[in-house]
User: What shape does this take?
Amino acid sequence: MTQKQINELRAALGITQKQLAEIVGCSLASAEHWCRGYRSPSDEFNSRLKRLWRKAQALEKAQKKFDPVIDGKDIARETPEDVL
Assistant: This one.
């Protein structure tokens, strides 16, 4: 993955460089270097990052599918009295 893609992944997940390092199992220094564009991830870590990206996309898709807005109403904000 490119520097831009890695930073987009972090932004999509709302995670820090430290959290990224913990998730993919690398050092904080490696994650920092990838995010700053100093180095590219090895094939091993590139595979892990791509797997994480796919999981993040699947989560986003699932969240959209179960979005609590129906017919323009935010049903998550409705009280039981509103529904009845």
Observations:
- The two ends are 50 Å apart (CA to CA).
- The mean pLDDT is 84.
